[in-house]
Amino acid sequence: MKIAFLGLGHMGGPMALNLHRAGHQVLAFDLSDAARARLAAEGVAMAASASAAVQGAEAVISMLPASQHVEALYLGEVGVLAQLPAGTLVIDCSTIAATSARKVAQAAQARQLPCLDAPVSGGTAGAAAGTLTFMVGGEAADLERARPLLQAMGSNIFHAGAHGAGQAAKICNNMLLGILMVGTSEALALGTANGLDPKVLSEIMRRSSGGNWALEKYNPMPGVMDGVPASRDYAGGFGTDLMLKDLGLAQENASAVRAATPLGGLARSLYAAHSLGGSGALDFSSVIRLFQPGS
Ligand code: NAD
Fold first, then answer.
1. pLDDT value at position 295?
2. How far, in Å, is the centroid of ligand 1 from the Cα of 69?
3. Can you give the pLDDT at residue 214?
């Protein structure tokens, strides 16, 4: 398929590369020269602008930071939707507000453009390995058209429901992840304050009723697990500021639907304090530092 891929950052870069390697004709664009150069070096064709990238595309895929970037791309300044012929498939994989996803989808539908919100889970490692989980909102028939593209980038594809449902599922998952990481950090800090070896304690909890994804795959305590951000001074991974954004989206959504999310709210405040302390660019598992005196 002829694909325009817009946004080649930590996630979009490896996702576009996997589509290219799967034999699709990818024409990509990012505002950043460095991001464009990284992908061009891998053999992915680059366009000079988003508008140039979408010319002749059968599908447009975007992976941008936040709601305002996605709205600007499709509806605002860049105005990509107005440049697409009817029938072009639009897939936004960014994590954004469900309300923004619905706004873009409505505008797309008005122009006979099939549109899906398809945020992902699995992090930069999943993006590179092509094993992302997609949570998709939109029409089932449109998802079937998108499926071969999503399969080139991921291994789990869920149809969450109508437009915006993919984003709603994503913020539920990330709110739980944010809470889990704080809880795991708190427990590990309590254990080490009691003189326990964090490796031994992690193994005890992992195999006991406290077991969870952070203990299984993403231990926040340095020296416990190889290959995770904690073992490289929290470089790479999923940034504290991105987690803060997702927890903010969860709280805004909770207000809109009148849901009670007190732990999500507390977790958001803790990541905000951590970010204000200068750790916004570090992986979100560095939140354990809030519980480690002197770190
Ligand atoms: P990133 O900041 O590394 O990349 C975003 C890219 O979009 C940047 O390179 C930026 O230059 C580009 N961009 C912004 N506006 C643009 C425009 N109008 N046209 C073209 N390019 C534009 O962010 P990321 O880590 O790749 O995350 C992207 C999205 O995926 C976010 O919504 C994030 O919440 C979500 N996400 C990230 C992870 C992760 O582990 N990093 C995991 C799951 C989901």
1. 65
2. 9
3. 97
